[in-house]
Structure formats: C-alpha cells, structure tokens
Amino acid sequence: MGRAPQDTPAGIGTYLLLATTMLFAAFPLYWMFVIATSNDEALAQIPPTVVPGDRFLVNLDEVFSLQDVYFAASLVNSVIVSTAVTAAMLFFCSLAGFAFAKLRFAGSRWLMLFVVLTLTVPNQLGVVALYIVMGKLGWNGTLLAVIVPGLVTAFGVFYMRQFIVNTVPDELVESARMDGATTMRVYRSIVLPAIRPALAVLGLLTFVATWNDFQWPLITLGGTDYPTSMVAISDLASGNYVIYRRVLAGAFVATIPLLIMLFIGGRQIVRGIMEGAVKS
User: Fold this and answer.
1) pLDDT, tens digit, 9 for 90 and up, residues 196-235
2) pTM to 2 decimals?
3) What is the DSSP string of 188-253?
4) CA 110 to CA 71: how far, in whole Å?
C-alpha cells in the first residue's frame, strides 16, 4: 500500500505573498481612517501623510450634526433594511431550494431553469418597471420599496438548492416521511441543521450586498430625508466643495458594521465554501 499524501508546508515565499496581498487589500481602509482623523491640510501634503490624526471625533461630530444629511437616521435605516432582507432571504431561499432539491412536482426542472436564466438579466433593466410598480403600491420613498424587492433572489435559490442536493441524502428525507413527518417538519428538523454553513454564507453575502447597495436606494429614497447610509455618504460628497474628511469619516463608520459581520462570519464562509467544494 502506498503512503497517504501529506500536506506540503508553505514556504517563506507563500507567506510573503499573502502578507503583501493583505497589505494592499487593507491599505484603502487604513487610508480612509487616516483622512477621517485628519484636517483639510492632510490631503494637500506632499508626500501624503500616513499617520492617523487626532480629529476623528471632531470630524464625526460634524457628520452627525449636518442638518441636510441625517446620517444617524441613515445608519438605522441601513440596519433595518439589511436585517430584514437577510432574514427573509434565508427563509425564502432555503425553503425554495429545499422544494427544488427534494420535492417532486410537475415542471420543477423547467421552473428551476427559468430561475437560473434570470441571473443573466442585468438588474438595471428592471429599474424603471420596478419604480413604476412601487409607485402604484405607494411605496416609493419608504423602506418597503427597498426591502420587498430583495426578499428573494435567483442566486439565493440556486445556491441553496445545490447545497441541499449535495448535503441532504434522499434516503434521510424518505425515512422521515415514513415516520410521519410533514414537509415543513422535514425542512425544520433535517434540512435546516444540515445547511447552517450555507445559511451563514448566504446571510453574510446578502447583508453586505444590501448594506452596500446604492443605485436602487438612491432612486427610491434619494429625495427623502432619511435614506440609507450609502445614499447619505453620496450626499456628503455632493456640492461644489467636498470636505473629504467628513466623507471618509462617514464612510469609515458605515464600514464598521461590515467589518464586524466579516469578523463574526468569516470562518463560516470558509467552512461553507469548503464543504460545498468537497461534496460537489
């Protein structure tokens, strides 16, 4: 019998490459913090300063004190929208993925094909129609116009369907049905515990994408007093004279929730991706 293959330890070159890549990836965030803590003269210095200043709280107070931006309310709106969309996405996409993966009904394959084909349609093509529909419902200018269109996506349904196919055996589902379990009981007791890594990945990606969404919130909430955080940052950067220390101070604060989410769920992302790769 041959010897089992062993992992080859990474060399110093690998670690240097990873460290360099990490520095390049983190530098924009660090530079944003440097300007957010500095005065207006810091941007004009040659060579530019790379040391944080001591005006972060002062700049932040100016951002939250602006009467025409309502930055604090925009952060609250982003939390509400991102949390609602993420929760709905996890429920509806996992439920639909379970139906496509384990339930047998007429036209399921053609319907799944249609769902996948919608991924090829750019979101920009539906903006006008979506705005008209939201207007007919009287939701334009409200958070419902931002939340409802994102309750379920084709990518989420397809991702959950593929993960459930590879993770939940058909025999386990059939055994539960023979024991008298209903469809919702199978979903709740068997499917959900098995797909927790996938739920963590989808939830984190959905939260980050919803938090960073700019185009549709700008269209439907841009003229209101309480938009989302990305629209508020755009308002900070508008005007004839842009005060970049304010813009970057607001952007840094709006980035903190994303960093927290990535710190909490980063391990789950790696686990979910690796499990999907191994089982596919």
Assistant:
1) 888 988 999 999 999 999 989 999 987 777 889 999 988 8
2) 0.84
3) IIIIHHHTHHHHHHHHHHHHHHHHH--HHHHHHHTTSSS--HHHHHHHHT-SSS--HHHHHHHHHH
4) 46
- Taking only Cα atoms into account, the Rg of the chain, rounded to an integer number of angstroms, comes to 23
CA distance 219 to 222: 6
d(CA 170, CA 208): 33
CA dist list (Å): 32 to 27, 35, 120, 250, 258: 8, 5, 35, 10, 15
Type of residue numbered 190: I
Asked if 160 contacts 97 with a C-beta cutoff of 8 angstroms, the reply is: yes
Residue with tokens 């919608």: 118
Residue 17 tokens, joined: 């490459």
Token digits of residue 193: 């515990």
Instruction: Give Cα 244 distance to the centre of its chain.
Output: 26
**Structure-token pair, residue 9:** 């330890």
* Termini Cα distance of the chain: 28
Q: Which domains does the chain have, with CATH numbers?
A: 77-227+251-279 (1.10.3720.10)
